[in-house]
Amino acid sequence: MNELAVVETALRRVRIDLQYLPCLEYFTCLMSYDSVLLDVEERYVKQTYRNRCTVLTANKVDTLTVPVKSENHGLTKDVRIDYSQDWVRRHLGCLQAAYGKSPFFEYYAPEFNAVFQKKYEFLIDLNYDLLTICLRLVGVKKEVTYNLSGLENTQNIIKNEVSEINNKKNKNIFKYYQPETYYQTFGNDFVSNLSIVDLIFNMGPEARSVLLKSSKIQ
Fold first, then answer.
1. pLDDT digits (tens, 9 = 90+) for 21-46
2. Hey, CA dihedral for 3, 145, 18, 95, is it positive or negative?
């Protein structure tokens, strides 16, 4: 197999952590591969995009965090959501304040609201259902499955991007994402790489086009 064939095979599958209402770089990463393996047996890392996202409000970029039970900081698949804190109301209220006047909020918000009302026990179930909705709304059709750490496929090279898209690295360095400006409800200065809901609520059916223009790998 020549070098080009190896590269083409390597781009077919990606292993990645399951994140909460992920940022745009996460989606441009997914769009670069044929199939996506969500690693749910990787070691859960606190204070990352696994349980938080960023949205643009009238005054600032706000971080929404899903609280989790500290005793379950082991494997990602075992992390339970902590409902002793009224985070659901906080998140829904923030999304309403941030995007209630955006062009497509009224069309898409009910579907997101329904997910939040289900009270999932495990974080991965909440994240997976939200990801499924977002992929459909932006028109990204991929084979997305859970994958166990250490499970290898001998017929395909799997690119490992677990923990590579995170909120701790330099915010101006992106592997898959190149900021493409689009309409945002608040502010005169464009804010890049927010949660996918910022793009969905503001751009609706045009979200896919923005993502394609934002992808470094065409």
1. 999 999 999 999 999 999 999 999 99
2. positive
d(CA 6, CA 99): 44
Instruction: For the beta carbon of residue 79, count every other beta carbon within 10 angstroms.
Output: 24
3-state SS class at 144: strand
Q: What is the pLDDT of residue 181?
A: 97
**pLDDT tens-digit readout, 154-177:** 445 789 999 999 877 666 789 999
Helix (H, G, I), strand (E, B) or coil at 87: helix
- C-alpha angle with apex 29: 164 to 191, nearest 5 degrees? 85
The CA distance from 167 to 165, in Å, is: 7
62: enclosing H helix or E strand = strand 61-65
Could you tell me the pTM of the whole model?
0.90
Say if CB 55 and CB 61 are below 8 A apart: yes
